[in-house]
Amino acid sequence: MIQFERPELLLLAIPVWLAYRQWGRQGGATGLIRVLVLALLVAALSGPRANLSGRGVDVIAVVDRSRSMPAGADERLRELIRHLERSRSDGDRLGIVTFGGTA
After folding, report:
1. CA 60-63-66 angle, 5° bins
2. What are phi and psi of 17, to 5 degrees?
């Protein structure tokens, strides 16, 4: 099912349609392409979302392990990852990407 983050922006279709009728009318394939592009633009502005994967949330933690990190940062990062693992629900996935000196 498709949901919209800002469904009120779908009302922009009215002035866009009026502007098209006033200035952008074209016959044949060009007119059809213009209508499709305008419809896609209005739909994209309204923020469509579709839940295709079913249930769960994917979280990716990007961890800097370079020497520029302050002392004790490794332990705080481990605690953060433990907290993320404990708070996962069914279907949730956790990914960890590390970079730095000895990643």
Report:
1. 160
2. -65, -40
